[in-house]
Structures are given as C-alpha cells and as structure tokens.
Design goal:
Blueprint (H helix, E strand, L loop, with lengths): L4 H10 L15 E5 L14 E5 H9 L12 H16 L16 H17 L12 H8 L8 H26 L11 H27 L5
Antiparallel strand pairs: 1-2
Helix pairs in contact: 4-5, 4-7, 6-7
The structure holds zinc ion.
Zinc ion binds next to strand 2 and helix 2.
Length: about 220
C-alpha cells in the first residue's frame, strides 16, 4: 500500500515541491514521510503524508528513543509543519504576503554532486589538465550535522573518499612544484598516478553508497 497518486499529485502541487519543515525547493528530491509511522500502524491516508527534503527526512527518522538526545519530531508537530507551510504557500499574493523559495538541494545531495565533480577531476587528470578537488559540501554536511545520518559504512566511505581527494590535491601541488626535469624526467608523476587510481576507486564506492542512500525512500 502507498498513498493515493491523485492525492499525492495535489499535495506536491500544493506544497510547491518544497520541504514542509525547512521550506527549501526540492524538485524530484522530495519524499513523503508518514507522520504516524507505517510500522506503528500509521495509515496511507494523505492526511498522514508530509513532504520532506532528504536532509529533514533523515533528521526526522534518526531520533533514537533508546538513547534520547535532543527533541524528537512528534507526528503532531509534523502535521503542524505541513499545515503551516500549506497555509503560507496558499496565502501568496493574498494581503501582499510573500514566501521565500530556496533552490538549495540540501547538504546530502550537494555532497553527492561534489563527489561526482571530484571524480570528474580525477578521471580527466593528465599533465596540463591538473585540477583541484573540492570539499565545501563535505564541510557543510558536517557543519549542518547531516553526515551522522548516513549509515556507518556509507559515512566511512564518504570520509575516505574526501581524505583521498585532499591527498590528491597535495600531490598535484607537489607535482607542480617539482616538474619533470632532465635529472627527474617524470617529476612526481608516478606518485600522482598511484594516488589518482586509489582515489578514483574510493570515490566511485562512496558515490555508489551515497546514491543508494538517496534513492531508497525509507518507509518510516
Ligand atoms: Zn527540509
């Protein structure tokens, strides 16, 4: 069983495909969360559905009742977020009120895009084509606290992939500082090639696991 598609269409149109908690625009990266968990008898009635972005969905589903820290999202609170947001959106243009829309895809998706970019840098590596990998979205995922919601193996592989990307950047700097010369015809190219090959495998693995995490829609 799942939510009725016609009612889902209406709900997604009504919320403008924005997350009901943080209000960012999600496009296809939106998920329907069961306010009352399905595993605890929550229904597939559309009243029980709340549209959420990946980050908020991970956050809502993460609370550990056996080791309580912070405050849990209750079903009642989630329904209030939904109600408030739908009211806010429907009042646009009424009484001159406005709603801010953000096109931010969120920290988890941004990190996946960044890893893809880093992989592109590595696989196009060659003398004269040396680029640098980035980790601003990795830092953002840490800062925003969403990295801890990834399954242990995925988080470990993502961290290893970023560590390798940094190592690659340092190797590029070394290669540029020690270019091939008459006494050292390859410069540090051999070292760089090894680092690229290891980092490529690690980035591919991290991306694979992150994609699995993003694509699986948890039934919670
Ligand atoms: Zn959100």
């Amino acid at each position: 069983m799942s939510f009725n598609q016609n009612e889902v269409d209406t709900l997604l149109a009504d919320c403008r495909r924005c997350c009901c908690i943080c209000h960012k625009f999600c496009g296809v990266h939106i998920e329907l969360h069961h306010a009352d968990h399905r595993s605890e008898g929550g229904s597939d009635d559309i009243e029980n559905a709340i549209p959420l972005c990946f980050d908020c969905h991970a956050e809502v589903g993460h609370y550990n009742s056996d080791h309580p820290r912070g405050r849990k999202f209750t079903a009642e609170e989630l329904r209030k977020h939904k109600k408030n947001w739908l009211e806010q959106v429907s009042s646009i243009g009424v009484n001159g009120s406005t709603v801010e829309f953000s096109r931010d895809v969120g920290a988890i998706q941004s990190m996946s895009d960044e890893l893809q970019y880093n992989l592109t840098v590595l696989t196009n590596n060659g003398v004269g084509l040396l680029g640098s990998t980035c980790q601003v979205n990795f830092e953002r995922a840490i800062k925003e606290g969403v990295i801890k919601y990834l399954p242990d193996e995925t988080r470990n592989k993502v961290m290893i992939a970023y560590a390798s990307s940094s190592k690659y950047n340092r190797a590029v700097e070394m290669y540029i500082a020690n270019p091939p010369s008459a006494t050292n015809p390859t410069g540090t190219n051999g070292q760089l090639t090894n680092i690229v090959s290891r980092a490529t495998t690690q980035l591919q693995e991290a991306l694979r696991l992150l994609t699995v995490f993003i694509n699986e829609s948890p039934s919670i």
